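Input chain follows. Return structure tokens only.
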Amino acid sequence: MRYLIFIGFIAMAYFSCNLAGKKQVPEPLPQIKSCKIYSSDFAMFDPNDEGQLIQEYLFNSEGSVTDLIRYDVEGNEINRFDITGEQNPLPMPGKPEYVDTVLTIVGYDSLGNQLRKEVKIYNQSGLLEEVDFYEGDTVLLKKNTYEYDSLNMIWKDIYWDIELKQPRQVIIYKYEFFTD
């Protein structure tokens, strides 16, 4: 009986090592065809309001941005900019700079007094989750938080009202993808 348990233990260890040695290859992201950006300036009054369409990025099948379209309050196109060849202007997952990290940047005057502080918080996927801007060391001036969808692509960019501790403005990103 002890030999069977020992053989079972060896088999489990062998399969665990083989599985641990194999790298998981992430599935490639679908190619973005367009990204429409909406702004809700009254998010504190109606958090379900996606807001008005303010601009849209169009992409080619290689993933480069081709056009930037700006819209008026009626949703009509007012400007179109040809920016062929530019890199993707949206924050993209897959190349994290900082993972599960808090990065603090402090600015001082010539006498060594702290003037400002910026705190950036990154999640385990390396995506920026929050940026806080302080006057000095403790007075919070601005706060932005970011939410991501199931593909780890930015979905919401939230600007906070510091006094009310509620979203003041929410920028929503809606993607359309190329289909095969």
